[in-house]
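Deviation from plan, reported transparently: zinc ion complex.
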Amino acid sequence: MAKIAIIGYHEVPTQINPERTRWDIMEEVVTGAIRNAGISKDDIQGVVNVAPQAQPDLISQTAFGLIPEHFGLKNVKDNVICNAGGASTTNCVRMAEQWITSGMAEVVLVPHITVQSDIAPEDLITFFAKAPMHQEWEFPFGMTFNGAMALITERYMHETNSTEEDMASITHALRDWASRDPLSLFFNKGKSTEDVMNARMISTPLKSVECNMLADGGGCLVIASEEYAKKHCAKPVWKLGHGSDFLGGTPVIREDIFWREGYRKSCGEALAQANLTVDDIDIHEIYGAYPFTQASYLEANGICEPGEGARYHAAGHTKLGGKTPCTTMGDATGRGHTGSGVSMAFYCQVARQLRGEAGANQVEGAEKVMMVTSGGSGMNTLATIWGN
Amino acid sequence: MTEMKRPLPEVSPESKPFWDAVQEDKLLIQHCNSCDTNIFYPRRLCPECWSKDISWIEAKGTGTIYSITTTYLGTTSEFTKELPIHVAYIELDEGGVRMASNIIGEGAETAKIGDRVEVDFVKANGDFKLPLFQLIKS
Ligand SMILES: [Zn+2]
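Because the crystal trials were delayed, the predicted structure below was used instead.
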């Protein structure tokens, strides 16, 4: 199978800053990614935009072609947006891959921009309470996104005998990565396990710092064919494998409640396609947005015993210098939640790690990264493996 | 209890029998006659076998808490007066049905996974009732 590579990326810091407009961010990330790739804007032959959440105007603008027009991308053959919630970037990269391997394009631009801080807080709460929850069967009972994930976490702790402290250690680890990352909303703001346990309760057992702070951000990838990447890029980041699993739309009736089966199937598929085993993976980047996902991913992949995921984090194995570095971009909990853009931030981080550009969070000698993204309230688990 | 001003479900044609029954203090679930599966939430066709030979059966209204959370913050404004609110996943005794609801009444604040519950039909906004659950006293 023909390969594709990330040949350029650019990302703005995650902030809560309504002064920075959507098209300010768009200009920075699109020009930044194309310059980072070292190519001309007229080399871009397709645009696949990650649909933002709760921003209907930006959805219309990008769906109907304003990105290639705005940037004068003269050789673009087609433009599309893709909405799969937080998993959208994976789907956009897959669309780019299809355009490339079918011969339609050699180089495809994948941007994402979101500004949530200029939306009224009540409107945002309503959006995130309704959009990923079932409006008829969950929302009338006071279900929120945090509440749904709290219910899963409570059940996870019950079944695995994980303590509040075990769970808090996961957020400590994510915030530890974030504390060294100037792109994070929580740069220089680490949290000890005790800090996490003492934070304000939102939905038992989840404290405020274990939930997500909505923020603004943006990033952009340049995806290219194997031939083009080899010719034009000194440090291409190669896609080596892909696996997918769909778990269900509504949390309350989902059978795979901890997403373990989803992780097992999608990561297994990706590893098989890449002809690798889990021991070959140097970094695991897990976009689950809530701490239990960091635990169940490890269990699903046999990195620890079933039920031991939280305690594996508590033992410090997933931090910088640990034997299994996990989620070096801090996940949404440690980064700030930019809607569908969290997955974009994950892809940029994968490129940084594999090019040796991850600064204070660089995992030395990283050659293979497995990343998993999820959309909605955990409707799917999409695993991809990348190598340098 | 504080008077509730809940956002109400937008009732669809396929779910109307469920909500009509709730107003008469009955909890109905769908049952597929072709593959003998209980279905929740209500649909036009069975998600297992696509049969449309679906009947409504009255549930006993008893079940077990599968998980529970107490929410202090972050709901939409309609719930603010009720906070903290106990949101739970309930597994009905009929099997194959897990539904979201609230635990109310005596002991709700200490309710936990595995506790036995029974349905209570509560006026949630004007005269419209929602199926909520109370702990069964042992
Ligand atoms: Zn059936």
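The beta strands of chain B are 28-32, 37-39, 54-58, 62-71, 85-92, 98-104, 116-125, 128-135. We consider this an acceptable substitute for the interim report.
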